[in-house]
Write a structure and sequence with these properties.
Blueprint: E1 2-7, H1 9-14, E2 25-26, E3 32-36, E4 43-53, E5 63-69, E6 74-88, E7 91-94, E8 97-98, E9 101-102, E10 104-110, E11 117-124, E12 128-138, E13 141-151, E14 157-168, E15 175-180, E16 187-191, E17 195-208, E18 210-216, H2 217-220, E19 233-240, E20 255-262, E21 268-276, E22 284-291, E23 295-310, E24 313-326, E25 332-337, H3 340-346, E26 356-359, E27 368-370, E28 379-384, E29 398-410
Parallel strand pairs: 3-15, 13-20, 18-25
Antiparallel strand pairs: 1-2, 1-5, 3-4, 4-12, 5-11, 6-7, 6-12, 8-9, 10-11, 13-14, 14-17, 15-16, 18-19, 19-22, 20-21, 23-24, 24-29, 25-28, 26-29, 27-28
Length: about 400
């Protein structure tokens, strides 16, 4: 454990030369501790103590303050010692200059060889009680973030709780300390050794969400041997981190998210877990919900034709057909991701960088194109009506055509 001791100058003079450094008595307990957790590798700890000092004279010398940490993982190069104020009566006053000389000053610091310790030599004009501030970086006092998301039954809004998780395996018991993650509120919490503490950092209510269904043939491949042209349809909740959508106070750090939904009877049902990525201000957080069994998409190449350009250059004209069935009671939007460079590679073609392509006239009017990840990964969004209210009525397939020509390919 760590300790600070005061070595009175008079006793140092009386001691034998071989015992010049004497740890006489432990200093009083910390008056204040602040823990700042905004760095992923090191944690800044700042503490204040009241140190009794003797008057420095030519005969007795200066005060020496010993700071040692036998089992605490402190970076010794980061330790700073600062005199703050002198107690006068029942209050503290700033350190003054008298005749151009400071009442208190740190003369030097020494590192005893072979020890996790250092010794400050402190000059004091008069005997006093000095408030000092010691700051240092410590490892194995870490933080992480976790979330709990509760969606309403209609899956249009949710309540998002963000937690700060503090793990203290630094070797030190800090007692009651101010804890700050670098943003958000500051907590006063007891931080004991080998403890894990979970603190509610923020609560966001009525956050609008969009439930998405995503199909990416090249990412997931065939669904199974019986459905060689179908692939998985993944479900997500999508949140926008801005004030308009009930968020936007600060970036949302990476962390595990446990996702629940109201069951309509006053209870909650567990949907699953996901690991949220760092979401900056105005960015989107996507929470994975699993695979959809109610939306089925089949992808086939309806036609493809090679058009020679010159030499070994050619253009490849392709019509991709999607047949989609929505067995849900609600309308849904399916986002189909196409990877144009993978389409080109299917025909043994090569192209430097992202392939050039253009949209063909046979593309279905119901397809809305967007390019969140660049021109070579277009997203085709299609609207799907709900299944018929009559359960005996068959779900109709929705058919869409994506017509494109990939330009300037060669074998």
């Amino acid at each position: 454990m760590r300790r600070m001791t005061l070595i009175p100058a008079l006793l140092l003079l009386l001691a034998a030369p071989g015992f010049a450094r004497i740890k006489l008595a432990a200093l009083p307990e910390r008056e204040r501790v602040e823990i700042q957790l905004d760095n992923g590798r090191y944690t800044l700890v700042e503490e204040e103590r009241i140190v009794p000092l003797l008057r420095s004279t030519a005969r007795t010398g200066n005060n020496r303050i010993d700071f040692s940490w036998s089992n605490t993982q402190i970076d010794k190069n980061s330790i700073q010692f600062r005199p703050i104020a002198i107690r006068e009566g029942g209050a503290f006053r700033p350190i003054r200059k008298i005749d151009g000389e400071a009442e208190i000053s740190v003369i030097n610091v020494a590192y005893p060889p072979g020890e996790n310790a250092l010794v400050w030599e402190v000059y004091s004009r008069e005997a006093c009680a000095l408030k000092v501030r010691v700051s240092y970086l410590v490892s194995n006092l870490s933080r992480s973030f976790a979330y709990r998301a509760l969606a309403d039954k209609e899956e249009t809004r949710l309540t998002l709780k963000k937690y700060l998780q503090v793990r203290n395996y630094s070797g030190e018991d800090f007692g009651t300390a101010g804890v700050w993650a670098g943003f958000g509120p500051q907590f006063m919490e007891a931080i004991g050794q080998q403890e894990d503490i979970k603190l509610l950092l923020a609560r966001f209510v009525e956050v609008p969400i969009r439930k998405t269904f995503t199909y990416d043939w090249y990412a997931h491949g065939p669904l199974n041997p019986d459905k060689p042209y179908a692939s998985r349809v993944l479900m997500h909740y999508e949140l926008q981190n801005d004030a308009k959508h009930g968020l936007g106070r600060f970036p949302l750090q990476p962390g595990k998210v446990r996702i629940f939904i109201q069951d309509g009877h006053g209870g909650e049902a567990f949907l699953g877990e996901d690991w949220a990525a760092l979401t900056p201000l105005d960015g989107k957080m996507r929470l994975y919900l699993g695979e959809s069994r109610d939306v089925i998409c089949t992808r086939t190449i309806k036609s493809n034709k090679r058009h020679p350009v010159r030499g070994n250059l050619f253009d490849q004209e392709i019509r991709i057909q999607y047949e989609i069935e929505n067995f849900k009671d609600k309308a849904a939007t399916l986002d189909i991701i196409e990877q144009i460079h993978r389409v080109a590679a299917k025909y043994g073609a090569r192209t430097p960088g992202d392939p050039q392509w253009e949209l063909g006239p046979d593309t279905s009017e119901g397809i809305k194109l967007s390019y969140p990840d660049g021109d070579s990964r277009p997203v085709l969004s299609v609207q799907l009506p709900p299944r018929p209210k009559d359960k005996d009525e068959k779900v109709q397939k929705q058919t869409f055509i994506f017509h494109l020509t990939i330009k300037n390919l060669w074998n």
